[in-house]
Amino acid sequence: MARKQSKRDPYGHLPVQEDTPVEAVICWLCSRPTGKTIVWHHPIPKSRGGRDVVPMHPICQQTLTANFTNSELQRHGTDVAGLLADPKVRKFVDWVASKDPDFTATIVKNKR
Description:
mainly alpha; about 5% strand
């Protein structure tokens, strides 16, 4: 007896929707649309009781973790304006504004 669906593709019987528009996800820090890679970042670190997540570019998340400790991120919470008040973060956001959404670079962590 023949199978009704492929053994390797259990979803082969579902219709394919190729022309579905994809809604752009906006980065929490820099307010640019995200690219193919989205990092779901905890504004309040999980180690400090944070549960909520926000979408970010990988490079934006690397910048936050390089410039702030977990306790500093906990103090800022979900206040983006407080993070952008830091001169290093503001300089980064101004610099990355003209870059492609999938742009990546190495972020150097500050020596404390």
